[in-house]
Amino acid sequence: MPSMDRTSAQEWLDRYVAAWRSYDPAAIGALFADDVAYRYHPYDEPILGRDAVVASWLGEDAQDVASSRDEPGTFDASYAPVAMDGDTMVAQGTTTYRKVPGGPVHQVYDNCFVMRFDDRGRCRKFTEFYVLRPESD
User: Fold this and answer.
1) What is the model's pTM?
2) How do the domains of the chain map onto residue ranges?
3) Would you tell me how many other CB atoms lie within 10 Å of the CB of residue 114?
4) Could you confirm whether domain 6-132 is CATH 3.30.70.380?
C-alpha cells in the first residue's frame, strides 16, 4: 500500500482497539509487520519484531518493557487519523480507565500515535505519545 487513506487508517485504528480489548495474539500480530519497531514512549528503545510486540502486549515480555494487561471492562479508547502522508499516519484520541468494570472513569489520557506502514497495511514503526489529563487521579 503506497499510501494510507482515511478509511484504511481508521480501519487499522479500530482493529488496534479491538485487538487490545481481546488480547488475541493473532489479532495483535496481524496489525504489525514482521520487523516492526514499537515504542510505548518516544524515548524508549524499540521493541523489535512482531512476536516481541505480541508478547509485550500480553504482559509476557522478559525484558521488563511489557505493558500491563488491563482487565476487561476497565478501559476504552477511541482514535482517529489526523494526518497521512504516503506510508505515514498520525492519529489522535483518548483512552479512559476505570478502577472496576462499569465504575466511574478515573483516568483519561490524550494520545498521539506516529506510525509508518508497509505495503500490506501492517505497521512497521509505531511510537506513542500520551499525557494524563490533569483532572484525572
Assistant:
1) 0.90
2) 6-132
3) 16
4) no
